[in-house]
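Technical annex, item 7. During the second reporting period the consortium partners agreed on a shared format for inverse folding records so that results from different sites could be compared directly. Each record opens with the tokenized structure and is followed by the designed sequence. A conforming record, contributed by the partner at site C, is shown below for reference.
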């Protein structure tokens, strides 16, 4: 596996930035937009370097391994990553009208999903549902999946808490999976989820852990369901916290699969 080092020492020259992750190498630029979810500020930060050949999206603010791996990928190849920053935690936790609310940011991309997400952690409210629906629209507007021609997300998980085995027959998420390919030599926590058969087949050739999402998977408000409903190819690189090299390896495999499967779409997005 290729060895590499993130150039974190260069970050010291950029500490005047308000972003949680300052640019970490010379030439990286950034722009951002601030959203407000009542008393919770959300900052969408786009880090860019070189030719904009690929675009990543990180929606959980406590999943930094994927962000660091994306920084290294774009340092070597060019591209950008949009990082959603709201205090270094996994969930949105906020107050409205004197009441506390909480939800997973990956449950806000459909109205039924928003309601399910809020119910999982406590209260629901019509106004809060509207607000979360608008936040999802703003994130999508910033990422521009129609322009990109795909959605490429980065997630991290805990050791043995979630992974490729979660989608196997008899496991909790078996109904979400149409097809599963397992490389027994890989850590089961490191995997890719896709919504298109062509991407699954390309990644199967790479012999990495990969799941094809079922077309009838329940609408839980996740970005993968949104992408599938809107006919947008979707990839999620899901890697255990701290597995930086594995994260980069799977990002590279995902980019190759995208380019093999949708060469014209990728070329157009990069122009």
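Designed sequence (site C submission):
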């Amino acid at each position: 596996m290729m060895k590499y080092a993130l150039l974190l020492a260069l970050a010291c020259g950029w500490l005047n930035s308000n972003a949680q992750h300052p640019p970490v190498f010379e030439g990286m630029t950034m722009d951002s937009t601030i959203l407000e979810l009542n008393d919770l500020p959300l900052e969408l930060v786009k880090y860019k370097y070189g030719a904009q050949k690929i675009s990543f999206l990180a929606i959980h603010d406590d999943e930094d391994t994927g962000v660091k791996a994306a920084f290294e990928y774009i340092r070597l190849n060019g591209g950008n990553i949009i990082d959603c920053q709201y205090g270094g935690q996994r969930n949105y936790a906020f107050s409205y009208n004197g009441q506390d609310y909480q939800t997973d940011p990956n449950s806000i991309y459909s109205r039924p999903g928003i309601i399910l997400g809020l119910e999982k952690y406590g209260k629901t409210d019509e106004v809060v549902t509207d607000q979360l629906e608008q936040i999802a629209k703003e994130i999508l507007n910033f990422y521009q999946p129609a322009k990109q021609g795909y959605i490429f997300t980065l997630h991290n998980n805990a050791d043995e808490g979630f992974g490729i085995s979660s989608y196997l027959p008899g496991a909790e998420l078996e109904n979400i999976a149409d097809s599963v390919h397992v490389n027994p030599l890989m850590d089961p926590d490191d995997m890719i989820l896709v919504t298109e058969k062509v991407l699954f087949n390309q990644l199967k050739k790479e012999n990495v852990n990969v799941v094809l999402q079922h077309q009838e998977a329940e609408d839980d408000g996740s970005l993968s369901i949104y992408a599938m409903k809107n006919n947008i190819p979707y990839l999620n690189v899901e890697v255990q916290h701290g597995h930086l090299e594995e994260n980069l390896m799977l990002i590279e495999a995902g980019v190759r699969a995208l380019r093999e499967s949708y060469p014209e779409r990728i070329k157009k997005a990069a122009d």
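Confidence is low (pLDDT under 50) at residues 1-18. The CA atoms of residues 131 and 204 lie 39 Å apart. All partners now use this format for quarterly exchanges.
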